[in-house]
Amino acid sequence: MLLVMYPTVFLGCDNDGVFDFRPAVARQQSAPTLVFRRLADEDDELSEVQPDAVPPEVREWLASTFTRQLATSKRKSDEKPKFRSVAHAIRAGIFVDRIYRRVTSTALMQFPQDVVRVLKTLDEWSFDVFALHEASSGAPVKYLGYELLNRYGMIHKFKVQSTILENFLSRIEEGYCKYHNPYHNNLHAADVSQTVHYMLCQTGLMNWLSDLEIFATLVAAIVHDFEHTGTTNNFHVMSGSETALLYNDRAVLENHHISSAFRLMRDEECNILQNLSRDEFREFRTLVIDMVLATDMSFHFQQLKNMRSLLSLAEPTVDKSKAVSLVLHCCDISHPAKRWDLHHRWTMSLLDEFFLQGDKERELGLPFSPLCDRNNTLVAESQIGFIEFIVEPSMTVCADMLECILGPLHSNAKNSSSTSGQESISEESSGGEGSNKFKIRKPWVACLSDNKKIWKEQAAKDAEARVMLEEESNGVQPVTTEE
Is residue 131 classed as helix, strand or coil in its secondary structure? Predict the structure, then answer.
């Protein structure tokens, strides 16, 4: 899920830029000289945020969304990431022939021509999932999910019956539409699944993974927000929902997404896993659980810190589960890294969902979660902070990880006869030291830069408008250069 407010923690920032983890009331009542240890690690991006870098509401939102509870952090602060050795299953070449299978010739499920037309752009970074939603008459998950599992050969490899897969995807789609969420709905599921496909296909990551691992990654992306309630983990905890009680306030929504999806697959008519062996099922289930739980945003900084630490080693060995978990997490928060028109539309949908939660919080007498008060939210500033301190660092670490694990595959492919098409998924640095280092293409870099520039221009306009409004309310005549 995308921007989840974690329970009970409301963070402030003192004059030295140190995060304070007490409730707001406690901060107001205590002496200003008392400084509490911040929750975010010293190496985390939020520790670099100066008091005047972003507005207080945005700092509170970033901190409460992307850090864990103090108790949880203390308990696990001494734990070191453990990475098991992985025997890389390297296939010949960067591309696999199955990726080019056409929907019209191989799929057993009938695809409308408008859907086939939109899916021709499926390999693009800024794929227009809104166009797919319209072409599919509101069923993007059904068609995109089927197309992806077919393209990667999962239907044939794991003997998934077409009717069962169609039933499964239709029921998943229904679950995403259950609460009529503006943001966390079937469109978001399809968008994240397509972005995961880009990472698998266009970087060559698929060649580092086994068929079962690809299967699990695609299904995890499809179900990662299944039956999302349109409210955050913090809201569930503060309101004492049945789901929060069931999962003891820990990763409330993420646990529900996984549990409900596997419960659905126990239905014979939706059991796409019925032909997996016992060992395959256990590995598949473990991978999906790991990946979906990793979309809990409260683990964001620890996840990035662990991967950075690993990549700093002389000879890093990346765990498959941690790698695909980071990929799914980055794809889940990737809309600011897409083309502006797509990003802006996602932002407005997300704010609608936040404001609906704020309305519920008002009705229940709960304090507003950050960015949920429709009468007092800084939209442009929040997106600037989100891009600078969350999305950009995440995409950077993810790219570094992919280049680390795919470099050896690229070297092997260069020495083989099946290197055609390599330039379409990678780029080599030219000249200077390290010119032979494998690099993936990063279309998100330009999008992030463009979007941040637009938001900064909007933030300046918003700030000017607020000043003028304040002056008018105080009876001050606005200054003008006109005679």
Answer: helix
Per-residue pLDDT of 190-206, as tens digits, reads 999 999 999 999 999 99
- pLDDT value for 373: 96
- Residue 367: Cβ within 10 Å count: 14
Across residues 131-140, what is the average pLDDT?
98
Selected catalytic residue, list 133, 184, 236, 344 = 184
Residues forming beta bridges with residue 217, ordered by sequence position = none
Hey, is 426 helix, strand or coil? strand
pLDDT in tens, 318-333: 999 999 999 999 999 9
Burial environment of residue 72 by CB neighbours within 10 A (0 to 12, 13 to 18, 19 or more): middle
pLDDT exceeds 50 at position 79: no
* Structure-block tokens of residue 242: 């049945």
371 CB-near residues (< 8 Å, 6+ apart): 3, 57, 61, 351, 354, 377, 382
Burial class, 169, CB count within 10 angstroms (exposed 0-12 / middle 13-18 / buried 19+): buried
Using alpha carbons only, how large is the chain's radius of gyration in Å? 23
Q: Which residues pair with 19 in a beta bridge?
A: 13
Largest Cα separation within the chain, whole Å, is 83
Phi first, then psi, for residue 231 (nearest 5°) are -130, 160
- pLDDT tens readout for residues 228-262: 999 999 999 999 999 999 999 999 999 999 999 99
pLDDT of res. 45: 56
> Which H or E element spans position 142?
helix 140-151
pTM reported for the whole predicted model: 0.80
What spatial distance separates the first Cα and last Cα of the chain, rounded to whole Å? 54
Using CA of residue 418, residue 424, residue 426, residue 427, what is the dihedral sign? positive
What is the C-alpha separation between 2 and 197, in angstroms, rounded? 18
The Cα–Cα gap between 155 and 230 comes to 32
Rounded mean pLDDT, 384-403: 98
Phi, then psi, of 427 in degrees rounded to 5: -140, 145
Mean pLDDT, rounded, for 58-83: 56
Residue with tokens 């920032």: 13
Strands 438-440 and 19-20, by their bridges, are unpaired
Whether 184 sits among the annotated catalytic residues: the reply is yes
Q: CB neighbours of 111 closer than 8 A, spacing ≥ 6?
A: 103, 104, 119, 143, 147
Beta bridge partners of 439: 427
Residue 274, token pair as written in the block:
């019925």
Handedness of CA 331, 333, 336, 340 (dihedral sign): positive
CA dist list (Å): 37 to 20, 63, 299: 7, 14, 18
